[in-house]
Amino acid sequence: MGEVIVIxxxxxxxxxxxxxxxxxxxxxxxxxxxAIVDADIGLRNLDVVxxxxxxxxxxxxxxxxxxxxLKQALIxxxxxxxxxxxxxxxxxxxxxxxxxxxxxxxxxLKETFDFVLIDCPAGIEQxxxxxxxxxxxxxxxxxxxxxxxxxxDRIIGLxxxxxxxxxxxxxxxxxxxxxxxxxxxxxxxxxxxLAIDLIGIVPDDxxxxxxxxxxxxxxxxxxxxxxxxxxxxxxxxxxxEVPYIxxxxxxxxxxxxxxxxxxx
Amino acid sequence: xxxxxxxxFKGTKNGIYxxxxxxxxFEKIEAVLIEKMEKAKCFFKGAKICDIKCDTxxxxxxxxxxxxxxxxxxxxxxxxxxxxxxxxxxxxxxxxIFTGITEGKTKFxxxxxxxxxxxxxxxxxxxxxxxxxxxxxxxxxxxIVMGTxxxxxxxxxxxxxxxxxxxxxxxxxxLRIADFIARPPDGDYEKPSVPELAKxxxxxxxxxxxxxxx
Lengths: 264, 214
Prior knowledge:
The complex is a heterodimer of chains A (about 260) and B (about 210).
Chain A: E1 3-8, H1 16-29, E2 34-38, H2 46-49, H3 60-65, H4 70-73, E3 75-76, E4 83-86, H5 99-112, E5 115-119, H6 126-133, E6 137-142, H7 146-161, E7 168-174, H8 176-180, H9 187-194, E8 197-203, H10 206-214, H11 225-237, H12 247-263
Parallel strand pairs in A: 1-5, 1-6, 2-4, 2-5, 6-7, 7-8
Antiparallel strand pairs in A: 3-4
Chain B: H1 3-6, E1 7-11, E2 16-20, H2 26-39, H3 41-44, E3 48-53, H4 59-73, E4 76-77, H5 82-95, E5 106-110, E6 118-121, E7 124-128, E8 136-139, E9 143-149, E10 152-155, E11 165-170, E12 174-177, E13 180-182, E14 196-201, E15 204-209
Parallel strand pairs in B: 2-3, 3-4, 5-7, 6-8, 7-9, 8-10, 9-11, 10-12
Antiparallel strand pairs in B: 1-2, 11-14, 12-13, 14-15
Helix pairs in contact in B: 2-4
């Protein structure tokens, strides 16, 4: 029996889809069988990020409506065996499915896959409710911006209300140089406000933009810092204890920042 | 018109509902009711009345009918009917100010209160955790936060000017006590390093360290 993990954030554009694609690919590389479900009906782009857009025949709404079988809609990844994508419908909207149908779908996927990742749409409406319906665990993605942290806080509250307690936090797009100068929120402050466990820090890295546009998850790029961060996150998801890559650097700037603040 | 058509008794798990046809004179209804009750005096003794349902009777007339049933036929009025509860709340909202400042009922909340969550309590609130930006805490009494208060807190919400807000780190988006509102200064300001207490002092919200080193 597999595990269903929803990747959510509240705010849009913080990197949910990129995170879903990378964690999915990363888990497959570790030898697990993974399905990624795009729950962003009407605004799908997980298929684009994974470079599988031209293979879509059936989508999630077709499965729910009984137009096709679940296996027919699952798209096999072009690079890795054991990685599958269930794409969202582009011509419909979030109300095309309901939480009960989603739960049924994830339960079915759980039987064949070790991990089922759900790429949650932005917002807290129907799409969010659908995405979390069948989840066993949640990962909250945020960026070092006040608005993203605020929305993450709201989402954590809603996850707790839905009894998805103990979500894990990914801080995406951190820029060490800016944090050093005190121009960006630092990691400690964010963890302090959100009060949940950190599972990964992903630096802002131009290799992500390059690989996203190519449709190749950055997790596969060996010399990328962001890729290394995602590789570590996937190992942490499987329960492994992995030290933070740039811990010395991170440590360095946090203590420096503390000094700056205490002088004020 | 025959009496039994005018008034109907409907028994439920919680008690009896009395349905009365609309557009009848109160005296007529009263007479029919007494006649009906007289016939089955023993049956109605001790029975619970949930509500009288009639579109044209006024609240006052309904009360008179209930009085007759209670005093003459020893029936009970079930107090949990919705209209009575509503009345109670309205009355309290209008005239009574919660005064339980040194003691009184208190709600304890364990954990972080997050954005979008709103807590309301007709007494004191104690939070064993943080209150994040975008969260609202409203209490008729005091608010104590055993953590960082970053959201909105409204103490003494129905007019108690003696109410206080205390937090280990008092850094709210907005602070309200009774009818007074305060907000932190624009731009950068010094974050609190010691536990602080907010109260009303000469018509403004005044913040002072809560642990005085004297």
